[in-house]
Amino acid sequence: MEPVIRLSNVSKRFGRVKALDDVSLNIQPGTVCAVLGSNGAGKSTAIRLLLGFESADKGDIEVLGMNPKTHALEIRSRVGYVSDSPPLYDWMTVEEIGWFAAGFYPTGYQAEYEKLTRRFDLSPSQKIKGLSKGTRAKVALSLAMAHRPQLLIMDEPTSGLDPLVRREFLESMIDVAAEGRSVLLSSHQVGEVERVADDVIVLMNGKVIAHERLEDLKQSVTEVVLTMPSPTAMPPKLPGEVIANVPFGHEHVWLLRHLDCGALADLCRAQELPPPIIRKPSLEDILLTLLRQNRNQQAAEQGALLVGHIDVASLRP
Questions:
Q1: If I label 277, which of 70, 114, 152, 198 is the partner at 20 to 30 A Cα–Cα?
Q2: Residues spanned by CATH 3.40.50.300 within the chain?
Q3: What is the pLDDT of residues 108-141, one digit of tens each?
Q4: pLDDT surpasses 60 at 244
Q5: Sequential DSSP letters for the chain
Q6: What predicted TM-score, i.e. pTM, was given to this entire model?
Q7: Domain 5-205, what fold?
Q8: Which residue has better confidence, 8 or 40?
């Protein structure tokens, strides 16, 4: 089965900032795929490239088998898109904006739009300008879904919404995937994403840190916490594939795959360390540890650059 989204060695730079750095990934049909990462990780840039709003500096992109550089309008006609601040005509009513949008789509769009607005308890006669942020988001989602797109792309759509509206959005994504269509969701609501996502992509500094089935990620990753004798004590090499390691004073937190618990217990006894704390982390735990490691690495790199600059300056007469 052909992927609905394919990126191959894609890079995008804005001035001195590398928003995407040699990104390759495939997203399969009928899945809810969540893209996670901090602000500036490259999530929104990737979405803009998929929709043809920006062009990649290098690499190949396909959306529904088409190149966004040459088929941007056709892609947008077949994809539903909801942003965190959807542009809507404030002077229109809920009913009028559906009628207006129907002119760009085949027959049946307005009937499906009206069905969706009823599901979301939207009043047809209410002016857009008088709607709350959550209600505007429901209108945007209805507009994006009314042509029954093969792919629904959502860029932080539930940001600032109340829990009930967020839950309604999540239920809509499950419905889309159940019909064999696909959802690409960029969100900071990790706990909610965890309830609906099939696949997860973690982006950091424009690079893909992880891309796999959510359940596989959660099952394969183990969190280990070790208490060291002092904050400066060198931690041991753990028996497993290290994904992340973050120090917190005396404690060190690791994320590992393929952990050998018996070998870890032997290691702690041999080095006279307290018994380790071992548990299965949530998706939010995994993401936070990765983000903390990334922040520490960036701080260390900036410190090294500063020290290097001072050393060079000190050599000048």
A1: 198
A2: 5-205
A3: 999 999 999 998 899 999 999 999 988 998 999 9
A4: yes
A5: ---SEEEEEEEEEETTEEEEEEEEEEE-TT-EEEEE--TTSSHHHHHHHHTTSS--SEEEEEETTB-HHHHHHHHHHHEEEE-SS----TTSBHHHHHHHHHTTS-TTHHHHHHHHHHHTT--TTSBGGG--HHHHHHHHHHHHHTT--SEEEEESTTTT--HHHHHHHHHHHHHHHHTT-EEEEE-S-HHHHHHH-SEEEEEETTEEEEEEEHHHHHHHEEEEEEE-SSTTSPPPPPSSEEEEEEEETTEEEEEEES--HHHHHHHHHHTTPPPPEEEPPPHHHHHHHHHHHHHHHHHHHHHHHHHHHHHHHHT--
A6: 0.84
A7: Rossmann fold (3.40.50)
A8: 8
Which amino acid belongs to residue 120? F
Q: What confidence score (pLDDT) does residue 317 get?
A: 47
For residue 273 the two structure tokens come to 């360390």
pLDDT tens-place string over residues 181-221: 999 998 877 877 888 899 999 998 899 988 999 999 989 99
